[in-house]
Amino acid sequence: MRNPDRTPIGVDLGEYNLYTACPAEMPDSRGAYTISGDELCTRLDELREGVAALLASDYDRDTVVAYVSQRRDELLEDLEDAARALCEYASAYDRPVLVTEDSHYAPDLWAWLTDPNGHRGTAWLLPMAHLRLRAVAAEYAIEVTTVPEAYSSQECHGCGVIGDRPLDKTLRCPNPDCRVDVVHADYNAAKVLAQRYSPGQRCAYRSPPPITTDERPALVADGGPRSPQEDA
Ligand SMILES: [Zn+2]
């Protein structure tokens, strides 16, 4: 059972913005907190190139492993700093709880460095960012919880309808009755995650609460109408 006295703060993880955080009640995206992932991504790309060159050279395996280990420690330090900054932000709220999506991946840096099909974010960066956030949040005595991730990056935070991604980094709500038009995708995802902490809030793709049929909000799948929300 979720604690209604807490302030749920959604945290979306990504490569462009490593962390995007905002509480469920945030009125607009200006109050969201973001930490860029650009530099970490660039360094992971460079590390992959560097390791490929080393493996193709005469260096022995131990030397390459030691090199990767050192670079990995430096990346972890930066991830730790980012997680710490996020926890400082969250600490300003009353009894915060960080709400992230389920992570299905375990960090495997070598998969990114040596697998031709390796994906930078899912292989290492995002699962490790998730792990570091949990560890640092524990130091701050901030609870971290997960909610189902399904559609969290596509669902409009204002009305629950699945939106379009017309432009990179934005989401457009197609619902004419919704006050959300175009919104930053990362902010939207963080807000959707924060909303999922509390039971009974709109979320088109999770089980509705056990209420009577009359009270039950229309599901998108039913083609039913949806009301504009106050906090778009
Ligand atoms: Zn909407």
Question: Could you explain the architecture of this structure?
Answer:
With 232 residues, the chain is α/β, with parallel strands linked by helices. The chain has one domain (1-232). The chain contains five helices and seven strands; from the N terminus they run βββααβααβββα. The chain has helices spanning 38-55, 61-91, 109-114, 120-139, 185-196; strands at residues 7-13, 17-23, 33-36, 96-101, 143-147, 170-172, 182-184. The strands form two sheets. Strands 3-2-1-4-5 form a five-stranded mixed sheet. Helix 1 runs antiparallel to helix 2 (61-91) and helix 2 packs across helix 4. It is globular. It binds zinc ion. Residues 156, 158-159, 161, 173, 175, 178, 180 line the site of zinc ion (ZN).
Concise description?
This protein has 232 residues and is α/β, with parallel strands linked by helices. 38% of the residues lie in helices and 15% in strands.
